[in-house]
Structures are given as C-alpha cells and as structure tokens.
Design goal:
Elements: H1 2-21, E1 25-31, E2 41-47, H2 50-66, E3 73-75, E4 82-86, E5 90-96, H3 97-103, H4 105-108, E6 113-115, H5 117-120
Parallel strand pairs: 2-5
Antiparallel strand pairs: 1-2, 1-6, 3-4, 4-5
Helix pairs in contact: 1-2
Length: 122
C-alpha cells in the first residue's frame, strides 16, 4: 500500500509544479482517502479561459504520461469548461472560473483534508 501512496504523492508533486508553472489559478489538493473509494486525491484548479483550461489539461496529460503514469479517463475536453482527468489515484478537475464557482467542488467535498504542497515535500 505504501507504493500506492508514494505514487499518488509523486503524481501530486509533478502535477502541482506543472499547474503552477502554467499559471493555473487557486490550486487546491483535497485528500479524499477517508471519504471515498474513487481516488486518493482531487486536484482542483482554474484556468483563465477555455484555451487556458485545455492547455493545463494537455500539459498534465503529457507530463504525467512521460513520467510513467497512465490516464484512465478524460471527460469534458471538447467543451473545455470543466475537464476531468482521471489518473486513478489522483483525479484532476480543471475549470474555467464560471464553472468552478457554479459547481463549487470545494464545498461539496468540504470534509476532505486540504493538503499544502509543503506537506507533500516533507
């Protein structure tokens, strides 16, 4: 089980750097391990517009694939308002600002532990 935890944390570290480098806004990492069997973590991030949202998704997909992580599912890319990338242990929710405000996943998953990037680097 430790290997899975290390893999999810490795995904988180790589992804956070990509999202930060590509100017993703309001990056939140939610630890949902105690709440759901869906995944270990959600990363929620906003893009400035639909093109930016798609760029963030493309960069995540490319970099994680190049680091040996396989995506299970991708949804919402055509519309670009909310793109979901499922890497099994980590699920990414990449929103434009309007869709993020409307769906407010942080409120829906408010019982999840918010994880800082500093905690991942410990």
């Amino acid at each position: 089980m430790a290997d899975l935890k290390n893999n999810s944390q490795e995904i988180l570290k790589i992804a956070y750097k990509i999202l930060d480098d590509k100017m993703g806004e309001d990056i939140k990492i939610l630890d949902i391990r105690e709440l759901s069997p869906l995944a270990d973590y959600f990363i929620i991030v906003s893009g400035k517009n639909i093109n930016h949202v798609k760029t963030l998704a493309d960069e995540l997909e490319d970099h994680l694939y190049n680091n040996g992580f396989q995506m299970i599912n991708k949804e919402g890319y055509a519309s670009g308002g909310w793109i979901l990338l499922d890497f099994g242990l980590v699920v990414f929710h990449i929103f434009d600002k309007e869709m993020r405000n409307f769906y407010n996943l942080e409120r829906l998953w408010r019982d999840a532990k918010l994880v800082s990037i500093e905690e991942l680097n410990e």
